[in-house]
Amino acid sequence: MNWNNFEFHNPEFLWLLILVPLLAVWYFFMRKKDAAVLTIPSVKGFKVESSFLSKLKPLLYLLRLFALAAIIVALARPRNISVSKKTKTNRGIDIVMAIDVSASMLARDLKPNRLEALKKVAINFVDKRPNDRIGIVVYAGESFTQTPITSDKSIVKRTISELKWGQLEGGTAIGMGLGSGVNRLKESKAKSKVIILLTDGVNNSGNIDPRTATELAKELKIKVYTIGIGTNGMADFPWSKDPRTGKLNFRKQQVEIDEALLKDIALETEGKYFRATNNSSLKEIYDEIDTLEKTKIEEFKYYNYQEKFRIFVFFALGLLVLEFLLRNTLFKSFI
């Protein structure tokens, strides 16, 4: 018998097992009480023999008690349960991560810089979304789709890990970044469509007004979470490149993020605005977005019961048959 996932369907019957030791005690005392006693002054002249079978006579009663115990256990319905699970995932969420890759993303107020800090957090976010499709849009002074919406997370993570500054024209075109994200999602059939728009600056480039892109997102029921990345106050920004070594030179500069615009975009599209001022707050933001946008997963459990009471019924019947045979054969002369 497999004792894993074993249970009694009617465990209340097991209380009847208390009767078994009580009946055993009752039999012991009744046997002594019913024993005939003959008092004689002397046993001389009598041949006293102790029969081995007569000593085994209580075995018949024990067989009945064991049979009773087996019947009680059978009434309790012992059984094994095997559980199979089936998971049903509703259509996942389609997500576009619109990422600012302008030169200011190399600022060192996050460690080692904003872009590298983002890449680590974004890859971790992707790992937590196994049932969703994700696409990557990058923007600076212009924008383009780095990876179309896909369910292949390895491609998405590789794209994120390879993000770098210098691929696009300089500037910060928030409207174009958002517009490209909207364009990626306009044909989506997903029940929930989300853009995570991250920037560290002010819209100063591009031919799409951020508010126009916001209206398009709202019309298509695309929720936009906006993230402003950068500390409060001053930060080390790249301002020139050494022509001999190719290394960037940094200088202190005031952090400027158009929070009013980012808040409006989030508000109009029923999203939420976040401000990431350091590595830990950036991670917390993506964790919160992961919590807010959950794919509905239903789990169904199927129970298969294997009844074991028949074993105890047959065992009890076997004991009773054995008791009957012994009573009417070997022990017949002692009953």
Automatic annotation (TrEMBL):
PROSITE patterns recorded: VWFA
Spans traversing the lipid bilayer: 12-29, 59-76, 309-326
Pfam families hit by this protein: BatA (PF07584), VWA (PF00092)
Keyword Methyltransferase attributed: no
The keyword Plastid is annotated on this UniProt entry: no
Segments forming domain VWFA: 94-289
Recorded superkingdom: Bacteria
UniProt keyword list: Cell membrane, Membrane, Transmembrane, Transmembrane helix
Coiled-coil regions, chain positions: none
Protein name per its UniProtKB record: VWA domain-containing protein
Organism of this sequence: Polaribacter cellanae
